[in-house]
Each structure stands twice: as C-alpha cells, then as structure tokens.
Amino acid sequence: MDGTLTCPVHDFAHMREALGMAADADILATIAALPQPERAQMMQQLDQLELHYARLAKPAEGVLHLLVYLHNRGAKLGILTRNSREIALQSLQAIGAAHFFDPELVLGRDEARPKPDPDGIERLLDRWQCPADQTVMVGDFRFDLEVGRAAGTATVHVTPDGAPQWPELTDLKVSSLAQLLNLMY
Predict the structure, then answer these.
(1) Fewest Cβ atoms closer than 10 Å to its Cβ: which of 25, 109, 152, 183?
(2) What CATH number does residue 107 fall under?
(3) CB–CB of 124/105 below 8 Å?
C-alpha cells in the first residue's frame, strides 16, 4: 500500500520515536509482545499516527492508469497491508482508487497475520480460487517480497534506483507502477 500504491509518506522513524521504540524495532512485533492493556493503548496510538499519514496519501506514479488497465482486463485485485483495513481504505479514498477494491479484499493486520507471514495472500488466493503461480505480489519493501515468496507468487519490487534492493526475493524490479504498466503493453 504505502510506497507502492501511494507515494511514501510514512515517517517510520518518527512513528517509532512517538511510540517509544528503538530505531530499528518492528512496530507490530514490538506492540504484539506487550501485555494488555499497554498493547491496546499502543495500538490506538499507532492507529492515530497511521490515520495522519493516510490523510496525506498521494497516488504513486502510474497507479490510477495501472488500476484502470487491470480492472478493464478483469484482474482480481486485493491489498495486504500491515496497516489496519480502515487506514488502507482511507488511503485508497485519498488517492481516488477506493472504487477499484472490494473492501473485503483489503486485508489489514486485523484480518490476517502481518507480512511477511503468507496468511493474507493465502486468504486472498482462496477467496479468488486462484493458484499462487498465476498471482503477482507487488510491493516496495522486503516484507512484500518475502510474503510473495512464502505464498508461491511472483514478486514485483517497486523501487527507485538507489533504494534498498532484495534481488534474491525479486522476480521483476521496476522503478514505478508506470514502468510496470508499460511492460504489460
């Protein structure tokens, strides 16, 4: 979602600092390890931070053209995000892409185990009755590529030059969704 369908706006360093976490902490794993009621309180704080960033979302280069193309071809579209479903839907609304996605096929951290666990992709594949080898996971971060690999899908890494690379997890690297669309023609 963030950095793939939207321009990256999340300031994870700020989020970790606001939540009182180490600079390299996995936010969701750190919160999950907390006892209640501290865990619930931290999740509320995280939701507020993510909502702030969702409202700032701007469409990634080529995203709307790609979604129109895929929609017109009858592609099945879903989202697997470490955000909540509500935050993802807010982001989709902000970029003008909500109508391309069935809200039930937007899986957040409450609907599936967080990436890189393949649970979410497996749920989408089951819902679509689609084999993994006919599916593509598109993402901008290592977790996206790891979840694709774990579920047996092809992986597309959307990343500008100079950004972190994970070639061992990547089937196709593109610098933008506009480039991905051009390759599909």
Answers:
(1) 183
(2) 3.40.50.1000
(3) yes
Identity of residue 175: S
Q: Which residues pair with 138 in a beta bridge?
A: 156
Question: Distance (Å, rounded) from C-alpha 185 to C-alpha 157?
Answer: 18
Residues 157 and 79 in one domain: yes
Please give the helix or strand (H or E) that residue 88 lies within, else none. Answer: helix 85-95
Same domain, 92 and 26: no
Instruction: Print the domain residue range for 137.
Output: 63-184
The DSSP secondary structure of 135-179, one letter per residue, reads -EEEESSHHHHHHHHHHT-EEEEE--TTS---GGG-SEEESSHHH
pTM, full prediction: 0.87
Per the structure, the count of domains in the chain is: 2
107 three-state secondary structure: strand
Token reading at 147: 């979840």
Q: For 16-39, write each residue's pLDDT tens digit.
A: 999 999 999 999 999 999 999 999
